[in-house]
Amino acid sequence: MAKKNQSRADQVRTAVEQAFEATTQGASPMRERAQELAEELVGAASRFREVIDELRPPTGDELSALRGRLDTLERRVAELEAERAAAAKKPAAAKKPAAAKKPRAGGAKGASASPGASTAKRGPAAPRKPRGTSGS
Fold first, then answer.
1. Could you write out the DSSP letters of every residue in 31-98?
2. Rounded to whole angstroms, how far apart are CA atoms 79 and 72?
3. Share of the chain above pLDDT 90, in %
4. Which among 50, 70, 66 is positioned nearest to 58, based on CA atoms?
5. Longest C-alpha distance within the chain, in Å?
6. Cα(48)–Cα(46) distance, integer angstroms
7. Does residue 7 surpass a pLDDT of 70?
8. Which residues contact 33 (CB under 8 A, 6 or more apart)?
9. How far apart are CA 16 and CA 19, in angstroms?
10. Please, which pLDDT band fits residue 1 given cuts at 50, 70 and 90?
């Protein structure tokens, strides 16, 4: 009887070992697929974190850095505008004396240099009615 029990125990042990081997062999492709899914999940979580970081409002340090860059750019623009204005004044100053030496021949025809300069040809202005009064 002991021999029969031992053989029965051996049979159970053999069956368990075969079940474990079958499970590990069958689990290998499932384990590989689970590993692939875990890697995809990690990648998706990383991309999600990046998107959230882009959507969050800037920190105080980031705002301070941007303000500093803006101040630098404003100073540079002011310098460039000042240089441009100084460069524009130099040629204009050089042209004015030359223009004074060279009078124009004939002048402008039919046009006046300033408004109201040709009032001699016009008659006196008609009197205006005070505002707020009606003609009836």
1. HHHHHHHHHHHHHHHHHHHHHHHHHSPPPHHHHHHHHHHHHHHHHHHHHHHHHHHHHHHHHHHHHHHH
2. 11
3. 30
4. 66
5. 148
6. 5
7. yes
8. none
9. 5
10. very low
What digits encode the pLDDT tens for the residues 63-82? Answer: 999 999 999 999 999 999 99
Reported as a single tens digit per residue, the pLDDT across 88-133 is 887 665 555 555 555 556 555 555 555 555 555 555 566 666 665 5
Please report, for the chain, the start and end positions of each structural domain, with discontinuous segments joined by +. Answer: 1-56, 61-97
The pair of three-digit structure tokens given for residue 132, joined into one six-digit string? 């707020």
Structure tokens at 94: 């050089």
8 A C-beta contact, residue 86 and residue 78: no
The residue type of 59 is: T
The answer to whether 100 touches 106, Cβ cutoff 8 Å, is no
Q: Please list, in sequence order, all residues whose beta carbon lies within 8 angstroms of the beta carbon of residue 72, skipping any fewer than 6 positions away.
A: none
Residue found by looking up tokens 């002048």 in the block: 107
Which two three-digit tokens encode residue 125?
């202005």
pTM over 0.70: no
- Mean of pLDDT values over 25-50: 87
**Cα dihedral: 111, 112, 118, 121 (round 10):** -20
